[in-house]
Design a protein that fits this description.
Strand content: 5-15%
Structural class: mainly alpha
Distance between the termini: 43 Å
Number of strands: 2
Strand order of the largest sheet: 1-2
Largest sheet: 2 strands, antiparallel
Order of helices and strands: EHHEHHHH
Helix content: 55-70%
Number of helices: 6
Shape: elongated
Length: 107
């Protein structure tokens, strides 16, 4: 079920920690639809850059290519990974509210 991979191992750190986490923090107080919309723009640039610079690799004839067609691969990845911003912020908020119930009441 290979869909895509990074060319270098360190891209996991730069992509998720150094790129997505700061963007997620900037978006955390916005409504779900705004987080997704801004996240889609951010992921669009990331996907486009990764494939243009050939630092990301899409496996030929992968599941997404078979289902949607080869020309829509980066768009599909951006649409999917843009959900990480609102979903991640929702999950962090739920965990924070469970760990610090008094602090969450003061918001």
């Amino acid at each position: 079920m290979e869909i895509a991979r990074f060319t270098y191992w360190w891209q996991v750190i730069t992509c998720y920690i150094l790129y997505m986490v700061p963007i997620s923090l900037l978006l955390r107080n916005r409504p779900f639809h705004e987080q997704y919309a801004y996240g889609l723009i951010a992921m669009g640039f990331l996907e486009f850059g990764g494939y243009a610079m050939q630092t990301s690799y899409a496996f030929p004839n992968n599941l997404l290519d078979q289902f949607f067609g080869g020309r829509t691969f980066a768009l599909g990845m951006a649409l999917f990974f843009a959900l990480y911003f609102p979903a991640g912020n929702w999950l962090v908020r739920k965990i924070y509210d469970r760990l610090f119930p008094k602090a969450s009441q003061n918001r």
